[in-house]
Amino acid sequence: MRDDWWVIDCPHDLIGEICGYSAAGLHRLGADGIFALDASCGNMSYVIFTDQAIKPRFECKTIYEMTSELAKRLGVEQQFTEGRTQEEWMRHLHELSRKAIPDLPDFDTFRKQGIYKQRDPQGHHVAYKAFRDDPQANPLTTPSGKIEIYSEELANIAATWELPEGDVIDPCRSTRPGLKTITIR
């Protein structure tokens, strides 16, 4: 696992076996290999290139650096990196994206302009349009056929749910015996 800010529960996380001091978003090129922030608003989609603002401080490493180092120590570095640096991976993935989106500018142009916008060729998307136009003819898959704020079905499941013998749902994080914090330097 990684942790940008080294929060108190990081070493005790139920998922993480190795916790590294991760470079935060402004320290990384492309927010860990996802080179952009993407979203849509109405019929406009956009992608924002997230370039590195400052170098990582102290011993912080990016996710790619940490996982590459782990792969190296496990003897599978070449299979993991395929011989590419993080930026080379981003350029490679960007070229694959350009095959699907021919109007997407080349990597260096996109990096320089910082944003790419594209209107939906289908026009403005309206969620559940058929239902909104005619709810009687186009019911939803809920028991009532309508949008449900409260679900009787889910309430019944929650009220009658029985866990198998020995299973517990712990609302608080528990520490795992034997968990060690390993720092990659």
Automatic annotation (TrEMBL):
GO terms for cellular component: outer membrane-bounded periplasmic space. Keywords: Oxidoreductase. One of its GO terms (biological process) is anaerobic respiration. This is Anaerobic dimethyl sulfoxide reductase subunit A. One of its GO terms (molecular function) is molybdenum ion binding. It comes from Enterobacter cloacae. Its EC number is 1.8.5.3. The keyword Oxidoreductase applies. InterPro entries: Prok_Mopterin_Oxidored. Transmembrane segments: none annotated. The gene is dmsA_7.
